[in-house]
Amino acid sequence: MRIKIPWWSVTEIIINQLKKSVDDMREAKQDDNKITKDEWKNLLAENMIELIPQLAELLYDANK
Fold it and tell me: Which of 3, 4, 46, 51 is deepest in the core (most CB within 10 A)?
């Protein structure tokens, strides 16, 4: 069985999530005009975790 991967859609999801990460980091920086390494790691991890269900749904839909 071959798994279909809609690469363009995967790319769009990743790009949109990275844009959201940048927005979240900008927002965190506005609080005290800096962002700590731990804040950066947490924000990045949260945004990468949000990718999982989006990608899973995309792959599921493409391979029904």
Answer: 51
Q: Residue 62: name the closest of 18, 7, 20, 4 by CA.
A: 4
d(CA 63, CA 6): 10
CB 44 within 8 A of CB 21: yes
pLDDT digits (tens, 9 = 90+) for 33-48: 989 999 999 999 999 9
Please write the tens of the pLDDT for every residue from 1-22.
Answer: 799 999 999 999 999 999 999 9
Rounded-to-integer distance, Cα 64 and Cα 60, Å = 6
Q: Helices 37-49 and 7-32: crossing angle, nearest 10°?
A: 150
